[in-house]
Amino acid sequence: MRKRKKDIFDKPWVTIATIVGIIAVVAIALVFFWGNGGSVGTPSSGQAAAGPGSSTVSAGPTTSAGQAAPTIVVVETTTQAVPQTGVRVHVSYLGGYKGTYGMPSGLQTVQSSGDRYFEIVNATGSIQASFQKLDSSTKHALTVEIYKDGSLLTQGSVSTSYGTVTLAADVTTGVAQPAQTGGGIRATATTGTIGGGNGTAGITAAMTTAAVT
After folding, report:
1. Burial environment of residue 123 by CB neighbours within 10 A (0 to 12, 13 to 18, 19 or more)
2. What angle do CA 187, 190, 193 make, to 5 degrees?
3. CB burial of residue 126 (10 Å; 0-12, 13-18, 19+)
4. pLDDT of 75-100, one tens digit each?
């Protein structure tokens, strides 16, 4: 009977060498894998994939689709509402102004600034209003208007240096005269404490004599 030839793998040292070789191959593969940052051909976030002969380009900052654009708030300059009862003289100017208003037999003198309404109490028949800028600015207009029960009877506006506006109207009939405007002559500022519009009193001349540029 023939003897069976011994298999080479029956020797212990061959089995050990085979196991060691497999472990070495696995170890080399792991070192190679983790040495590349654990990625296989996938570009990192914010980078473009690099092809042969090309360089990696970092992407710039982007705006998220859900991010709202900055809101620009525009502040509007508002004027006072027109009173709906009585006879009122409305004067509007960024700088200072002075003038007279009322019935011819009892004109009131006022010096102020900004947007104001001056009431003519118990007004009947003819009334008038005449106002002048207290500065030489030509960039902003002085506007004067006369209202009765919220309705405009007449108005006038002027932008000239030391400009003046003069109005006249009959509040009984509602008939108004054409507005007269002029300017060029420096006004003399009123001194002391004076009255303001819409029941506001005690406006001083110091508030209104600054020039407008």
Report:
1. buried
2. 160
3. middle
4. 444 567 999 999 999 999 999 999 99
Count how many residues are written for the chain: 213
Give, as one character, the DSSP assignment of residue 68.
P
Residues of the chain predicted below pLDDT 50? 40-50, 52-57, 73-77, 191-213
Residues 58, 46 contacting (CB under 8 angstroms) = yes
* Sign for the pseudo-dihedral over CA of 210, 106, 118, 89: negative
Residue 108's SS3 state is strand
3-state secondary structure of 158: strand
* SS3 (DSSP) at 29: helix
Distance, CA of 130 to CA of 184 (rounded, Å): 15
58: its two tokens: 């970092």
Residue pair 204/193 in contact by the 8 Å Cβ criterion:
yes
CA distances 3 to 6, 14, 197, Å, are 9, 22, 132
**Average per-residue pLDDT for the chain:** 75
Q: What whole-number distance in Å separates Cα of residue 148 and Cα of residue 89? A: 9
The residues, ordered by sequence, that sit 6+ positions from 178 with a Cβ below 8 Å of its Cβ are none
Structure tokens at 112: 């102020």
Question: pTM (2 decimals)?
Answer: 0.55
